[in-house]
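Service request form, structural biology core

Requester: graduate student, group of Dr. S.
Request type: structure prediction, single chain
Budget code: on file
Notes: please return the result as structure tokens.

Sequence provided:
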Amino acid sequence: MNHLPSNMMPEEGSPEWMNNGDNMWQLTAGSLVGLQSVPGLVILYGSIVKKKWALNSAFMALYAFAAVLVCWVGWCYQMSFGERFFPFLGRPNVALDQEFLLHKAFAGDFPNATMMYFQLVFAAITLILIAGALLGRMNFHAWMLFVPLWVTFSYTICAFSIWSTEGWLFKMGLVDYSGGFVIHLSSGVAGFIAACWVGPRTVKDRERFPPNNILLMLAGAGLLWMGWSGFNGGDPYASSIDASLAVLNTHVCTAMSLLTWLFLDILFFGKPSVIGATQGMITGLVCITPAAGVVQGWAAIIMGMMSGSIPWYTMMVLHKQIRLLKQVDDTMAVFHTHAVAGCLGGILAGFFADPNLCRLFYGVHDSVHCTGLAYGIFTGRPKAGFRQMGVQLLGIVFVILLNVTTTSIVCLVVKIIVPLRLHEDELQVGDDAIHGEVAYALWGDGEKLETVNETLNFENNHEWPTMELKTSSDAQVG
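Core staff response, request fulfilled:
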């Protein structure tokens, strides 16, 4: 259990090796990322779905956060960042001993406890993003099994290979500043594959799936956006100039992506869609993540334009033309917003990576590693640039193959124990059938209430007013 002799325990609350400022920023950044999930995505999921699925969708996110936390401290942290067990995986081990937690982490001037907390919230949000593809039909008991199995057998392999100093892709020089591969590409692919195994929502839900509260959805989206300051700003493991650059690039790219998506919606559909703008925000956040602190500001703007247009095209055009995409019911379109945008960000990181900024982040002084193709060509070292692009593409292929395989195996194992999909009667009712509770004591999905008789006649009948429900003609179709 990583025991150290008792005489090696720190004698002071702030040992000489610890930087108090860095430790405080790392804990703050981790908390910002945690707020993206709880309450950020809990609110976003609970409000962007049909009313009858609000509670179930929010609770899938909340459960995933709690379940991943227990798995993380129990064995997953060591599998992701601990002693090498396989070329692609660390040795499973409990990470709760104080003689381990209070000593210096593998990177940064702060203790292992801080590093574990910071990495925990990254693992948790990955599972919550996968849930976005499964809303509105997955058996909750199946989800309860899926979460610990997937974080154990898929996330840990990806994290160790790309982020651990012993990982094979890390040693090759893969640029993934803050999780474009480990979190977003993984969750996008895993969500799509899991959705394929679980099956689609009911025909009625697929045809009409209006959000129950768009204003609340925007509140969740706002928490997601602002929380990304910790998501990308915390990955230098220091309150450094590189962290400052990463935070600024994150917001510049996101704003440009949102505006690009909004412009395309107006140009082709005539209306500025609020949900569309939110999707553009998410694709911008995802795209900049693997490159946040290793690209210049002008590159972040270009990345924002591309993340607001290419995923828009795959979602609005290609999705209607490619048979496989039409067949798989991806509720929150995580394939487009995370897999496509994550791939795009990984490729653009390999193209725009500034070797000087890479030296700040990675401490690499080798001119061959971490040189973007654009800089390689400009400085007369195209071989180094093409090599970096090759490593980025190899990382994309690895993450896709890993998640297609592991997610399929996990779904098959869960399917043996419990059904992946809810029963038809539960699909018709939603929250009340699954949890015995409902989110709102209101009337039907996307319907207007018309009072036919507002007079109460308690003296004669003691009845409530007679009400008539009719379908809203302006309800938004999901």
